[in-house]
């Protein structure tokens, strides 16, 4: 059986940042990732015509000022960043008394805030973090189904193999871990209840991305930003790359039936974009409809409560479980910026520190 100092469950930004910190400190680490790719809720896909360059974000898009760990990582990893386009007027869409949509142009842009973007998509962050890991320390397509404390080790069922470790870091949303990973001995009931009740950020969101030949809305003095009460997209933003290339708009919808993507959503989003930004917007070069609620390695099975965000960063997530051998990472466990990439990085740093301090303790124990 393979043995590691630490097994990290999940190769999202939190798991990878934690593993990279542990590897840099000389720890023998394995990252087990269920999907066939790294990144988790960071997902940047090549545009239809790859020769035009640029990737489109179907998961996270932005980071914000004061998010110091994102700033630090992008600088250290030499990841190109640029400012979100905000110039121009915003749009507001309501429904009239008969339910027909009404579009109103707003002077200025009260919708977008100052934010940063990743030059080659948000997933470039996890691509770079994965690149810091020693060869052989990342296993893709390897879902962890069980974690068992035995004697002085933890046995982790990773795909079809058991691997042994001194410690394990669970860097998947807590509700997903509680629903899909069999942990023995069982976690204390209050901790299990907490994990089940902690919502998974954006897990019921559908992101719609439309790519165009050029950011034509900017020529009409529009910012590409809209808020709509007529739907299906509730908010829309310019998601063009640096210098407007690739040109793109994106919008968020809420999954009507979580877990079952709506086949009509793309068409109704296209019609809405045309209502707001003109006929050209209804005819994108490509349209992506990514329903995160149908992703089994993001959204826990059953109904996501939606409420319960006050449980983010609960103090219990800072207490290692399984006699100090199981640590929580993942953005939902962060005390600050939970839900954001910044929160995922903060949780990773906290988990890495906890792992290393336990290793120091056990090494110096008489
Ligand atoms: C549509 C959308 C838009 C967003 N926009 C923004 C934004 O603009 N800015 C921002 O800061 N944040 C945004 N977020 C949130 C941001 O994406 C997350 O905060 C961040 O990616 C979370 O990282 P994580 O590593 O904690 O979790 P995840 O990215 O969920 O990573 C968990 C990983 O664990 C894996 N996994 C799950 N179960 C198992 C298992 N049993 N065994 C092994 N592996 C497993 C998953 O496949 C995944 O790779 C957005 C999210 C979504 C969905």
TrEMBL record:
Record flagged with keyword Oxidoreductase: yes
Superkingdom of this protein's organism: Bacteria
Domain spans labelled Amine oxidase: 120-356
Endpoints of the signal sequence: 1-19
Gene3D superfamilies: FAD/NAD(P)-binding domain (3.50.50.60)
Membrane-spanning residues: none
Key words of the record: Oxidoreductase, Signal
GO molecular function annotation: monoamine oxidase activity
InterPro entries reported in the protein's UniProt record: Amino_oxidase (IPR002937), FAD/NAD-bd_sf (IPR036188), Flavin_MAO (IPR050703)
EC number, as in UniProt: 1.4.3.4
Keyword Oxidoreductase attached: yes
Classification via PANTHER family: AMINE OXIDASE (PTHR43563)
Entry similarity comment: Belongs to the flavin monoamine oxidase family.
Record's protein name: Amine oxidase, flavin-containing
């Amino acid at each position: 059986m393979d043995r590691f100092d630490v097994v990290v469950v999940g190769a999202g930004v939190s798991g990878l940042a934690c593993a990279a910190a542990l590897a840099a400190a000389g720890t023998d680490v394995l990252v087990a990732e269920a999907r066939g790719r790294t990144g988790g809720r960071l997902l940047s896909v090549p545009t239809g015509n790859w020769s035009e360059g640029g990737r489109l974000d179907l998961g996270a898009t932005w980071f914000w000022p004061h998010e110091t760990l994102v700033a630090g990582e992008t600088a250290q990893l030499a990841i190109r960043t640029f400012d979100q386009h905000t110039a121009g007027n915003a749009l507001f869409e309501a429904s009239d008394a008969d339910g027909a949509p009404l579009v109103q142009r707003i002077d200025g842009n009260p919708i977008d805030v100052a934010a940063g973007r990743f030059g080659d998509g948000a997933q470039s962050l996890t691509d770079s973090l994965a690149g810091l890991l020693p060869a052989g320390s990342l296993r893709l397509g390897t879902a962890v189904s069980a974690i068992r404390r035995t004697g002085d080790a933890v046995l982790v069922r990773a795909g079809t193999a058991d691997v042994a470790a001194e410690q394990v870091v669970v860097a998947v949303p807590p509700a997903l871990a509680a629903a899909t990973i069999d942990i023995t001995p069982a976690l204390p009931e209050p901790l299990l209840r907490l994990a089940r009740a902690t919502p998974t950020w954006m897990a019921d969101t559908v992101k719609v991305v439309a790519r165009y030949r050029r950011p034509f809305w900017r020529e009409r003095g529009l910012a590409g930003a809209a808020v709509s009460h007529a739907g299906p997209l509730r908010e829309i933003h310019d998601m063009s790359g640096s210098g407007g290339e690739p040109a793109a708009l994106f919008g968020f919808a809420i999954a009507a039936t979580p877990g079952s993507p709506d086949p009509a959503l793309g068409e109704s989003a296209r019609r809405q974009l045309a209502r707001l930004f003109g006929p050209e917007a209804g005819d994108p070069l490509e349209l992506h409809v990514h329903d995160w609620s149908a992703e089994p390695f993001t959204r826990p099975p059953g109904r996501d409560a939606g409420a319960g965000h006050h449980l983010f960063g609960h103090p219990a997530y800072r207490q290692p479980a399984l006699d100090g051998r199981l640590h929580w990472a993942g953005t939902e466990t962060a005390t600050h910026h939970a839900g954001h990439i910044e929160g995922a990085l903060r949780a990773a740093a906290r988990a890495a520190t906890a792992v290393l301090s336990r290793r120091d303790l056990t090494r110096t124990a008489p």
